[in-house]
Amino acid sequence: MASTEAQDDSDDGMDAFMDKFKSQRYKNALSENNWEEEFNKIPMFMKTAPEEIDPKKYPELACLQSIIHDEDRTPEEQAKSLKDEGNSYFKEKKYKHAVVAYTAALKKKCGDQEFNAVLLTNRAASHFHLGNMRSALNDAAAAKKLKPDHLKALIRGAQCCLELRNFPDAIQWCDEGLKSHPTDNKLRELRATADKQKRAAERDARKAKAKEKKLTGEKEALLSAIKDRGIKLYQPMSSAPEGSGSEGEDESPSAGIAQLSLDSLSSLEVTGAQVSLDEQGSLHWPVLFLYPEHQQSDFISAFCENNSFRDHLSVMFGEELPPWDTDKKYHPQNLQLYFEDEEKETLYQVDPDSSLLNILQHKRFFVKAGTPSFMVLVKGSSFWKQFLSGKKIRGL
């Protein structure tokens, strides 16, 4: 009878528990909405390790990490755990974390030199994938010092030298490695690549040197040709060397041909053209024609010094006149040319049949910014009279 009553009480208790379970949720269960996220917090089932381990958010993982870094264990055991941690980060491509783990393992200073060589090589690999080639090379060199025949260290050192374009050192790394591992295909492949790129770099260096030598020779010949002709390049007073000019009426202290340099011929960036010397020894200048009446201009990129102004005017104002010449008066026979001496506030009239060289050699002509410039006016026009009024005019 007592047994039957006890059984009844037990059944009533189970019934009450089941009724309560149906009406109230189990507090420690995974939530229905976030069960995958919570499941991933369990160390055994984690797909990836978190960036930072918060003990409140990851208590189990924090506990495991404290075991890994237990200071009561030997330095070798701690370093081994840190190495494994670094390897895990490396597999997940978290190279910065891997570097930290391998560095912490090295700081344990365990006496196993071969193990330390592995740590250094692994850290070199992490640095390599981060693009820190110098650090990777330093670690590979340190690993090789501890273990001269360490294959991975030798390969990594050669790879770093290749990335740094230090081809002779890359070849040396490979040669050292092939002494211990003569059949290793990776070392052979790296050596062949380093040798090929070394030859290409040497060839490019020779070409660059030859090109630089040629350009230097061309520049010297160009400046010599200008100087030999007595052509004067305008130099601002602030940059003119002392004693570069005299105080005579026909020479300007602010311009001269002393210390000629291509800086005085700086027309290339502005106009896209620059004075050049052809194979026959003739200079070709970029020349600017200004039309003050219409605020227009023409540009000739290569005006041969031996050509006359009329040669170009007959082309520029030949069968078709420019659209801005609405009065159709810019015919070659109507035009007058001038160059301006700003310092003397004087205009010099240019004979259209003169060669460019003849004008450039005039004692009061100074080439500014590497581009000789001339003004073009229509003789007898109202603007011509007004423009020249009150100005000092000289013939050549």
From TrEMBL:
InterPro entries: Csn1/TTC4_wheel (IPR044059), TPR-like_helical_dom_sf (IPR011990), TPR_rpt (IPR019734)
GO molecular function, one term: Hsp70 protein binding
Ranges for region Disordered: 194-215, 234-255
UniProt keywords, alphabetically: Repeat, TPR repeat
Family annotation (SUPFAM superfamilies): TPR-like
Keyword Cytoplasm: no
One GO biological process term: protein folding
Domain Cns1/TTC4 wheel, chain residue ranges per copy: 278-387
Presence of the UniProt keyword Repeat in the record: yes
Gene Ontology cellular component terms for the protein in this record: cytosol; nucleus
Family per similarity comment: Belongs to the TTC4 family.
Protein name (Swiss-Prot/TrEMBL): Tetratricopeptide repeat domain 4
Protein species of origin: Cyprinodon variegatus (Sheepshead minnow)
